[in-house]
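stage 2 :: seqdesign
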């Protein structure tokens, strides 16, 4: 499996300017080398964007664990497999060829030779991924793969159980959070950018549903690790989120 570092695909010029202004010294980057930064949090808290930018800033590999479950969900929906069919979904996870490739500065998700980068963010996949990812067999396969991909460290990983199950001994654990309203507003913007019409009320209801499901599932529920640093993103810019996590990483060098 190939998993190179990722570049955030949106507003590239702005992000490049930010990195020029906030560039770390070679010594700081070298001090962080080999470490694992794990980021958890509920849907819409800003994990994907923030983790991607942190990884690029410190020259780490970005591991989007959520995209892996979403890719499995895409295959299941295409094959007409019920999100509740744990046995078949586990077989799909075991046999799939899941890869990540950089193409024109965009991190592409490829499963069984099919580029599903756009498909994994559709409302249909979003509404079913929590159920698919809750199956013990699916999670065991994906967690084993995630650990293999991070054997050499220098990884920023994000998801729902990266600080508690996948990387319980991560060098830095961060729990990103934000109010339901703020998270819903971000989802609306994301959907509009994809050409999908939705409302704030619809996204609030969907986020509340996903929060309840992710936190209440029997296997690997979304929880805050006791030693995780909580970063509330409700009133933070993306730059502020990235800056805070890098500050925490440098403060926790040991």
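stage 2 :: out
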């Amino acid at each position: 499996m190939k998993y190179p570092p990722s570049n955030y695909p949106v507003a590239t010029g702005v992000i490049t300017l930010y990195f020029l202004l906030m560039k770390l010294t070679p010594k700081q980057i070298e001090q962080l080398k080999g470490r694992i930064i794990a980021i958890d949090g509920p849907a819409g808290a800003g994990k994907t964007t923030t983790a991607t930018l942190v990884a690029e800033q410190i020259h780490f590999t970005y591991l989007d664990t959520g995209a892996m479950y979403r890719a499995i969900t895409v295959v299941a929906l295409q094959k007409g497999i019920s999100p509740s069919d744990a046995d078949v979904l586990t077989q799909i996870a075991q046999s799939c060829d899941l890869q990540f490739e950089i193409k024109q500065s965009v991190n592409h998700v490829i499963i069984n030779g099919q580029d599903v980068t756009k498909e994994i963010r559709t409302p249909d996949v979003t509404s079913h991924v929590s159920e698919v990812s809750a199956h013990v067999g699916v999670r065991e396969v994906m967690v084993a793969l995630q650990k293999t991909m991070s054997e050499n460290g220098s990884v920023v990983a994000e998801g729902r159980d990266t600080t508690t199950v996948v990387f319980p001994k991560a060098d830095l654990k961060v729990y990103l959070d934000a109010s339901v309203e703020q998270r819903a507003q971000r989802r609306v913007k994301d959907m509009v950018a994809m050409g999908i019409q939705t409302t704030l009320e619809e996204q609030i209801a969907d986020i509340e549903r996903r929060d309840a499901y992710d936190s209440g599932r029997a296997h690997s529920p979304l929880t805050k690790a006791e030693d995780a640093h909580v970063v509330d993103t409700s009133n933070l810019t993306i730059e502020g989120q990235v800056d805070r996590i890098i500050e925490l990483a440098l403060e926790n060098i040991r």
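stage 3 :: structure notes
- The first strand starts at residue 36 and ends at 40.
- Residues 1-21 have pLDDT under 50 and may be disordered.
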